[in-house]
Design brief:
281 residues, TIM Barrel, alpha/beta
Length: 281
Amino acid sequence: MKVNEIKCKTVIGKCGFPSGGWSINPYVGCEHNCVYCYARFMKRFTNHTEPWGNFTDVKTNAPEILEKQLHLKKYREGPIFIGTVTDPYQPLEEKYKLTRKLLEILLPYNAPVSILTKSDLVLRDLNLLKKFKGIEVNFTINTLDEKWKKYTEPNSSSVEERLQTAKKLSEENIPVYAMVGPYWPEFTNPDKLFKRFKEVGIRKVFSESFNTNGDNFIGVKKVLKENYPELLSKFEKILFNNVFFEDFYTEAQERLLTASKKYSIPVEIFFGQGHKRKFKK
């Protein structure tokens, strides 16, 4: 892993999520090295020759820049999403504490803040999170299969660590959500997931299909060829054939809605190749 300390000119900008708002990313790149990472497009804006997942740029001046940008009222009106194209609690955060510093700066403004992560390191900042009037933590949890998780999200916290962290946050009255994304063929089971979500106090679930844009499938294909060769053709057929894609994710939507009703956890579903279309809720 190549780590570079860099200076940034801005740290908060428009968020591309359907809800709009603003995004903050204290790092470029991520040590978690998830094989399906949709944020690999960010490499186009860097001078890196290393593969995505093998470098992280640390925006060492991010706290000072955020303080300056927050002088503009528009940035204080939220919602603010931390970690839209990086994980703000990747292992380097333990050393640099950039995410914590950014949260300390945001605290007085009372803008709604949403943290997106796959790490139990977020518990380090529990004392700070409890001071916010409007904050939520979103964990990506798309399977209960730790083996598949290890292959596809190699350097992130285990599924069980995320679930236990969600439980601890929930017990402190911090809203916790789950992202079931990508919704995988074979490895995503909505009923089993929602049962665990209910047990740990997750309040809402979001789900999205696999993003077929760009090179997002290359790493997944490698994992399948090396560890699940019997599933490779099935994955390719579902993800890259419009008819099979539609059939699979229509059924997946019904399974999510059934689990949502059974466990009384609301779900919002975003399915579509490249996420260009949205299935009904």
